[in-house]
Amino acid sequence: MSDFHQNGVITDFHNLTRRPVEALEQELSQFAKRRPMGLILPSLYSELEGPALSNIVDELAKVPYLNEIVIGLDRADRDQFLHAREFFARLPQHTRILWNDGPRLRELDSELESHGLGALEPGKGRNVWYCSGYMLASGCSAVVGLHDCDILTYERGLLARLMYPVAHPRFNYSFCKGYYPRIAEGKLNGRVSRLLVTPLLRALKTVCGPLPYLEYLDSFRYPLSGEFAMRSEVLEGIRIPADWGLEIGVLSELQRNYSHRQLCQVDIADAYDHKHQPVSEEDPSGGLNRMSLDISKALYRKLATHGVSFSSEDFRTLKATYYRLALDLIEAYDHDATMNGLSLDRHCEEQAVELFASNLLEAGNLFLDNPRERPFIPSWNRVQAAVPDLLSRMHEAVELDNQGKV
Asked: Sorted alphabetically, which Gene3D superfamilies does this protein's record hold (predicted)?
């Protein structure tokens, strides 16, 4: 069953009655004969030692329709990479690990930087970008999915529901965004989406006007989810931020490059829990503190490309508007939690809002102070135009890392 959420911008698929995962996988196995499917897993090495990833790998080992799995491995030395090869060896699919800190990929990274094309800042966006390049180089997948490696409640039906709209041969969707309830252990989670993105988008509509771009972003139920699927050609033309603005950046590029009729979102899980980031009030380089800065900057940059101009006064007005809207939402969330027997700490919620409001102003100052900043990683179309053989050399480097000596 589907409807058009909020303002009717994109198709919204509700799984009001869950189909058995085996039935979905049987259909997807048929779809895969026409549209082969692959999966990107951006991972820190530390996640191999965490509580979630081993179960994710066990679940993926049962998936019959995946043609390839590409793991982007960050912050790993040689011994850790060798351990990762053993860790993922139980996957029956064609599996490759991008050792992003290894000498072969570092050399290619330096070459890109010499052309002014490198991803200057390490992070999830950079990891996903390199994995996307490898997917394009391998040419094995017509549909590419992506999800995080810290999902504690992972079951393979999540992936099947995510891939289905893009893989179906009768559907014309180029991109699908996953969403799910952010409830776990009797608590209402998803603070950055609830307390930053939703009130910020509404504040921006008040300050800047009801722009189609803002209406589009506000039509996503969970714009910060790390789960999406797309046609492989989408990977060639999008520019994404290297930092925590990845999800907003991807949605923004899709709005620019594709018809809304080619985009959809789907309910992929009844329960979802993952590793929770600390707020990190005292450390602007980590946790929700850093995340809120990166997301705010990503929104400001994208609004600038839509012709919106900002001044210091605009950012002060935005902060005040956001703060009032966010406090009103906390009241509603508190009532919602009470009605559903959930817990919500209003004091902590308001502390987070105060931090986010301060960061809106800080992100605005950073935006105004760095007009020459190059915030987005170039598209792979541009990279291939500048260095035509780079993807083939990346493919060779990854093969050597995975099958040879390192």
From this structure: Spore Coat Polysaccharide Biosynthesis Protein SpsA, Chain A
User: Coil, helix or strand for 188?
Assistant: strand
pLDDT on residue 6:
42
Rg (CA), the chain: 21
The SS3 call for residue 167 is helix
> Is 143 in a helix, a strand, or coil?
strand
Rounded (10°) angle between helices 198-208 and 312-339: 140
Confirm if 144 and 229 have CB atoms less than 8 A apart: yes
Residue 134: the pLDDT is 98
| b/e per residue 360-394 (b: at least 16 CB within 10 A) | bbbbbeebeeeeeeebbbbbbeebbeebeebbeeb
Largest CA distance in the chain: 59
The DSSP code for 278 is P
**Interacting residues of 18 by C-beta distance below 8 A, sequence separation 6+:** 157, 270
What is the per-residue burial (b if ≥16 Cβ within 10 Å, else e) of 245-269? bbbbbbbbbbbeebeeebbbbbbbb
Extended strands (E) in 9-60: 11-13, 37-44
- pLDDT at position 14 is 84
Phi/psi at 310 (nearest 5 deg)? Answer: -125, 150
C-alpha angle 350-214-195 in degrees, rounded to nearest 5: 10
The per-residue pLDDT for 374 is: 67
Measured CA to CA, the distance from residue 402 to residue 173 in angstroms comes to: 33
pLDDT at residue 375, rounded to an integer: 67
Stretches in the chain below the pLDDT threshold 70: 1-8, 16-17, 120, 275-286, 371-375
Alpha-helical segments (H) within 232-311 = 234-237, 246-257, 287-305
Count CA atoms closer than 13 A to 356's CA, side-chain side.
Answer: 30
Determine the Cα–Cα distance for residues 180 and 103; give it in Å rounded to an integer: 39
